[in-house]
Amino acid sequence: MEARKRLSAVAVGGAMLLAVAACGGGGTGTSSTPGATQPPAAGGSDKAFVWALSAEPKALDGAYVSDGESLRVIRQMFEGLVGTKPGSTEVVPALATKWESTDGTNWTFTLKQGVKFHDGTDFNAEAACWNFERWYNFKGAQQNPAVSYYWYTVFGGYAKNEDASLAPSSYKGCKAEGTDKITISLAAPSASFIAALSLPSFSMVSPAAIQKSGDAVEMKGDAPEFTGKFATEAPVGTGPYKFVSWQRGDRVTLQAFDGYHGEKAKIKDLIFRAISDAPARRQALESGEIDGFDQVEPADVDTLKGAGFQVQERSALNVGYIGFNQKMAPLDNPKIRQAIAYAINREALVQAKYPAGSRVATQFMPPELTGYNEGVTTYGYDVNKAKQLIAESGVANPTIELWYPTGVTRPYMPDPKANFEAFKADLEAAGFKVTVKSARWTPEYLDAVDNGKAMVYMIGWNADFADADNFVGTFFQQFNKRFGFENKEIFDKLNAAEQETDAAKRTTLYQEANKLIMDFLPGLPYVHNKSFVGLGKDVQGFLTDPLSNENFSLVSRG
Amino acid sequence: MSLGAAEAAITVAEDHGGGVWREAFKRLSRNPAAIIGAVLIALFLFVAIFADWLAPYTALAPDLKQIKGPGHIPGPTAEHWLGLDDQGRDLLSRIILGARQSLLVGVVSLLFGMIGGIILGLLAGGLGGWFDTGVMRLVDMMLAVPGLLFAIGIAAMLGEGLLAVMIAIGVVNVPVFARLLRGQMLAQREADYAMAAKSLGVKRRRVILGHVFPNSLTPVIVQGTLTLATAIIEAAGLAFLGLSGADPSIPEWGRMLAESQRHLAIAPQLVIAPGLAIVLAALGFTLLGESLREALDPKYRR
Q: From the candidates B27, B87, B152, which should be mutated to test the interface with A, based on the most A CB atoms within 10 A?
């Protein structure tokens, strides 16, 4: 008898493993169970539009977040002075109807008239300047890079920097002229400033609502806690949707704003649910529980299309690259860096593991952006050349530590382990000895990379705004621990490009910078990936956006 | 009769020589479950040991030329009996190479657990007293935590790596062996032969190490066979959860299962093959272990 019991236990154990595999467990974090609740079914456009996020938003105040899933929700409730045209990266008027500057330092914006916040207060010059002054005067935890990341990235520091390592702010002040004009002054000319303002992080919030609900932030260890209620319970903006409720761990509910100044939202109720597990998101779409989700796995595209669902392609502005840390030998040797570049078969990887339409990268920014240079040095796959370069380098039996992240997929890296295995095999074929290093994406992997502890590592970048500065400027404009090199020529070129306000001259400067960078080879860019959005059969008017700034107010049901 | 001669007589009376095992083997050879188990184990060992010769392809480095795009996973053909995985590698070869990894993890972690357990059990059962109480409370505490959860905790603490997995599974099994051996030794200490040796004036240490201990090992060996089955499953479980060696190009059944789950809809063979391999290997050890237990248990003697 006992023998039988034991046997069945083993059989059950094995079957359980299979079952777990079938259910698609083993993903990262918690996976919420779809199927617990159904959206209210009313039919037609009265039925709520349900979108599955891959993670719950952190907070609903753009100034406090930098993660895509928070910004996606924020994007529906808030607007900035400028925006981007839906489906493109072109900067277009939003709350400002026009803007001008004679010197690149002082920028005058003319504001749209008759715009109201969701709480009924007016949006005007005073409110706009109040927003800039709020960001500039951030204190304490608000200055933490984990909180006001984009302000710091675009404007440098704050009115009173509380940490000596913070840079001085490039923001000088905001002056209201009447009710419909403001002038923003910068410390130095900046040409990327306007494009940066299209970030949802620079959305205009209602001053009255902030004063009423509070916007306090505290640091709990390394993570911010939003104690002010504005960011969690009462966000108020000017966008086509207004906030209704946020049930933690379940959903954020928004409703069309009747007093919206532009074209009103077509669907009344908009619900965001967090489903962290990728297969569970697909299943939720298939069961009709949600109407759409982002980052459809490339392998699922045909399956979903075959079942009648819509899969829209997005030509995302991103780059996947292998970074080299030159502080670590033998990466300080340019011949070794070149040998790695020649050793890796990027074409084969992109063709096999990335969706059709993805491109092999030749430089650190996608071709859609101005400043892209067709004439950079390319390093086509050539094992013999790699072997020859290793021989010339004088490094005998070069050993490199190759890092890959676990517990993550990124648009430029849908399957990090697959990329890693391909790179490792290619490098070994060229004569490198490869030491395997891996860590969880957050915090260990990113910490190792950002603190210069990773030698050769897989990483990438998704555009925040469509500008060369957001790519090469972010990576190479100053000393960066990730790459561990000082190259004055590259730094100077990028600084000059960022400050140049003449578009043609600026393009040339970035092209020259890209050439310098690819000759110097601080890393090996390998892919500009496409990504996919999955949508329900009856969804209409959804426009994928290269910056993931999809506007849900344009969506309707057929 | 001298002390030595008397002790020799006791040893004969204990009957721990060939008698029990020979009889057990006879019973095993008549038990179909045992034969199936033995065949599965033999097959598993053979495949694991000769993996390099048996595997039709090297199957370590990806061969991306075979993959036409994401979601394209070539199925079985004459050259590749089980088809290719999503990296263009021969699946059959990876299953065969994976056997070696499973055997390695299974045996090494079993040895860790068994040696640790035997040392603790021997000391507890042999010394008795406060030491026994202390060790057994520790064992109770360790057994209170579910095995896999415990292993995950230890493996996560030690960091990623094959050795961490083996230590984790080993540690989980230490209390099982310790308790089993200690219980057996307590029973054997009161047995007639032990009493006889003691009354003859044989030293306590000699009674315990020379007589009681070897006589208590039989259930430990049976448990070892069964534990090998759970160790293989636990190793696969940990790998499934991402806690195996850092180098993903080395085939491991649990990891193969975990990585293929997202292709279940288009290429179920990628999931079924390693799943079946895990089940069969574990089944072999379980069948043989259980039969061995029955065969050695006097209650089942006819």
A: B87
